[in-house]
Amino acid sequence: MASFNLKNICISLSKLRIGHAVTRSHSNGPRYRPPYWFASKERVMTNDYLTQENKQFVEEVMKDKMKVQAELESPLANNGDQSIQQWAPTTRRVGVIARKIGNYPIWSKDGKKMLATLLQVVDNHVVKYIPPEEFKPMKTCKVNWREKRRLGCLLVGSETIDPSTVTKDYCGLFDSVGMLPKKHLCRFMVSPEAVLPTGTPLLATHFRAGDYLDIRAKTIDRGFQGVMKRWGFKGMPASHGVTKTHRRPGNIGAGGEKARVWPGTKMPGHMGNRWRTLRGVKILRINTKHNVLWTLGVAIPGETGAMCYLYDTILPLRKLKSSPPFPTHPPADDLPIEYYDESIHPYDNPTVTYEEA
Amino acid sequence: MFRTLLNKLSTVPSSCGFHTTACLNEVRLLTRLRVVDNSEIGKRAMAEGKPPKVICVYNKKGVGYIGDRVMVAIKGQKKKGILVGLKQTQKVKVPKFDSNNVVLIDDNGTPLGSRIHVPIPTILRTVLKERTHAKGADYTKLLAIATRFV
Amino acid sequence: MALAIRRTSDILCAARWLIRRDCRVLSTLPEKAEISQEVVVRRPAGRRPIANEAVLESRHIYPEFLPDPNPDWRNSLREKLERADMLKRRSQIDIPEFYVGSILAVTISDPHAQTKTTRFVGICIERKGCGLRAEFTLRNVVDHQGVEVRYDLYDPTIQKIQVLRLEKRLDEKLLYLRDALPEYSTFPFDMDPEILPEGTPVPINPVQVKLKPRPWLEKWERQELKGVSNIEEHLKGKDRIRRELRKTPWEKYDLMKQYRKTIPIEDQSEIWAEVHNQLQQLQLSRKKMARKRTFTAPKPQLG
């Protein structure tokens, strides 16, 4: 029975492309239509003609379930210290799913103004772990790079939703581990030491202020754009006899022997809505009450309200040097509300002054 | 329709209907400057209504910022000067002046005049100290003849 | 018997109702007014009117507490955190009530200055930005040279903001002072603060400035300025014609435009309900400090 279940999950997983390694360069753009085998998450909503009482009953059941889900204890809390493994610089921890909620300035201790982006870690829970032996991602036609280490796959979901709004396939994924379905789902490749039990909440304290992140998100969808906007071409003069070619690319290739357009030539086309990773983003401040991270800079892909995935950075000089909360920070009540990086001037500190040199 | 669109885009709707942004007031080639020290040549040029023109900005951008060295054409001569106040939009806490001010210097960085009669931004102190090297020109003499900092 | 009593009481009720109805007709009061009175009575302890007053007052005194109305940038949690940070900063330094047209003295800690502090006095010509991005611009003429400095309102290097003269002008932005005669924006650095008696409304200065002859930085004649007296002197016929052409008198009826530029009153009341108490406390402590200062100031003179 168990193996049957597992098989089912594997099938649904492969359908959902969770185990599918996406390797796509900029030359082949986003797919505009999902492939035929893609199992959609959203259900087509139909009118069920339920009576008022039945509707109420369904709502009650839903409420109870949500309540049970919310009251679930973190498995880390009662587990104690017995099974905690040691962190090493080569281990890979799980990341979190966050939402970009805007940006505002934050000042450093020497009075310099910096713009920070706020990322809210929204209701993250570990859904499932697939150990490296069982993890068989769908083969892609070209594999550019293969991980030498054997990494397991940890599924993390964020934002619990009503199961009646999603398809049965998607629900089954969560039902088999006894959770309610999540709105967003992400696959994190983790070392087998960094595994977390199902239902572990991931909080903003998973990271520390002063650490660096890699942030993966979809860029803003700008639609079909010309070369000036898409690639920053200069265009052509507004006057001096120029007609009808003010924003056009001009020449796109030579004649003669190589009388064709070279692959990869920058041309008009769909801009944005692609997965991009911004590496080495510093965490300036953490709010433990609302689970918000302040990160340096405004270049995090996506518009306000977009989801993004946060990982520990892989940049060699900004990698984690000391042991972070491993495998994750257990939920605790006695944490300070705010953590600041040492370069940041908290707003409730007295005014910055300079000493006479 | 087009006109309303233009109006919306610009705070200063222009009459020719093409440029819709305010000018940047950058110090570039052929910008007229105001000499604010009491050097003889500078005073006479300003009094005659022939303010100096920039003929070279000594930086890589070609646009002069506070503390940059410029060469100016003044009364038929070539003189060097330091920009001590700009009209273009400045960063927070850096003063923006109503005119582009210049103080004339010679090749060693010694100012030609003996007094500057307008206020000078304090950030110039840091900028000029950075530009001054042990063996090269010493620009900090300019700070000594300033009367007021803002 | 019981039936009879009930009937008579019914009749009485009906009669009373009729009488009241008649009275209303006679008094010629609009029905609406009475309804609103009833509503006020029913609400517990006048909670609503206070909130409403606060909305009306505070949005002028603290305009930066309202978020940017662009729906693409709005997020309730971010706005909440931002407001909390603003209040934290306000608990450290006293950011007074001021308007465009008020004269301020700002002291900042400046790493470039010799004494490490710089003081600037000037008239506030512009105030913009929402939340922690709020900024204001001061203008003054020092040694016959116009100088403008822009400050972030919540910059932690600002040591003190002092209002030397609290007043408003006729326009929302005084950018035309750049083209006005210099005496309209000249203020001495050693100006004494003028203290208004408590409870007086903020005075509006009806001064009308004189502009220098053209060229101007902007086309002031098209901006419907109230604070400029001699704009017509400098205009030619074609300027007047073009001004007529560029007029957009329909924009004051454009409800959508207004809606997009403002925060709806429901959102505003939520925001003010959140921050009003703390702002009120800060204001009280500021008043206390001011009173102390007035008491302590004469002492050294006596001694």
Automatic annotation (TrEMBL), chain A:
Residues 238-266 are annotated as: Disordered. InterPro entries: Ribosomal_uL3, Ribosomal_uL3_bac/org-type, Transl_B-barrel_sf. Pfam families: Ribosomal_L3. Keywords: Ribonucleoprotein, Ribosomal protein. The keyword Ribonucleoprotein applies. Belongs to the universal ribosomal protein uL3 family. This is Large ribosomal subunit protein uL3m.
TrEMBL record, chain B:
InterPro entries: Ribosomal_uL14, Ribosomal_uL14_sf. Its main location: mitochondrion. This is Large ribosomal subunit protein uL14m. Belongs to the universal ribosomal protein uL14 family. Keywords: Mitochondrion, Ribonucleoprotein, Ribosomal protein, Transit peptide. SMART domains: Ribosomal_L14. Signal peptide: none annotated. CDD domains: Ribosomal_uL14. One of its GO terms (cellular component) is mitochondrial inner membrane. It is found in: Mitochondrion. It comes from Loxostege sticticalis (Beet webworm moth).
TrEMBL record, chain C:
Its main location: mitochondrion. InterPro entries: Ribosomal_bL19, Ribosomal_bL19_sf, Translation_prot_SH3-like_sf. GO terms for cellular component: mitochondrion; ribonucleoprotein complex; ribosome. It is found in: Mitochondrion. It comes from the Eukaryota. Keywords: Mitochondrion, Ribonucleoprotein, Ribosomal protein, Transit peptide. Belongs to the bacterial ribosomal protein bL19 family. This is Large ribosomal subunit protein bL19m. It comes from Loxostege sticticalis (Beet webworm moth).
